[in-house]
Amino acid sequence: MGTKFIKIGLLLVLIAVIAAFIALDVKQYATLDYIKSQQASMLDYYQQHTFLVLVFFALAYVLVTAFSLPVATPMTLFGGALFGFSTGFVVISFASTVGATLAFLMARFLLKDSLQKKYGQHLTKVNDGFAREGAFYLFALRLVPAVPFFVVNILMGLLPIKVRTFYWVSQLGMLPATAVYVYAGTEISKISSLADIASPSLLIALTLLGLFPIVAKKTLSLLRSTQK
User: Fold this and answer.
1) Which of 10, 17, 32, 57 gives the lowest tally of CB atoms within 10 Å of its CB?
2) Is pLDDT of 11 > 80?
3) What mean pLDDT comes out for the span 198-203?
4) What is the mean pLDDT of the chain?
């Protein structure tokens, strides 16, 4: 009974956060034009209150990613523009991974038991596969930009992958895309749209990079089986 009330409470919090996000029209503050217009004033404030701004930004980023709010990309650009590449990269890398892990835990707490109970016998092979090789698939999904960030968090929460594995693989797998967007933020004055960052060649390169660990593992397994 206690767990049921906690789940209901968590769902109400999720609904309240999403409702507040929509009601306050937060997305209007997450545009390239707004970031550019506020860059100078925020940079001045950051130089005067460095630690405070870093902590506030990191906490805000964690909440945004934990609740899967669609402003993570503009925030990453803003972080690059405000903090520079090195500081922005470190802060955003850890904040995004912590937020993703919270989203993963929420999905697991709210949905996994009921899903596994209802479809457990049909998911046996999927569960077994992820218990053995989940880290490889997660790494690939993190590297492939075509798969939405929040979808990966929720999907992994429903599958048998350990929390610590989810955390370190996510941290590692998201590094290339994080570096690209943070660097783009440092060059914010030269960017007119998100399309200037996510060029087809970059998307293809990240996709191939994401597929590499799975292809390499399958190739090794095939070679070992032919030698037996």
Assistant:
1) 10
2) yes
3) 57
4) 79
pLDDT, average across residues 58-67: 94
Quote the pLDDT of residue 28: 74
Q: What is the 3-state secondary structure (H, E, C) of the chain?
A: CHHHHHHHHHHHHHHHHHHHHHHCCHHHHCCHHHHHHHHHHHHHHHHHCHHHHHHHHHHHHHHHHHCCCCCHHHHHHHHHHHHCHHHHHHHHHHHHHHHHHHHHHHHHHHHHHHHHHHHHHHCHHHHHHHHHHHHHHHHHHHHCCCCCHHHHHHHHHCCCCCHHHHHHHHHHHCHHHHHHHHHHHHCHHHCCCHHHCCCHHHHHHHHHHHHHHHHHHHHHHHHHHHHC
Calculate ∠ Cα 119-14-127, nearest 5°.
25
> What is the rounded radius of gyration, in angstroms, for the C-alpha atoms of the chain?
20
CB 188 within 8 A of CB 81: yes
Q: Model pTM?
A: 0.79
Residue-wise pLDDT for 152-171, tens only, equals: 898 888 887 889 999 999 99
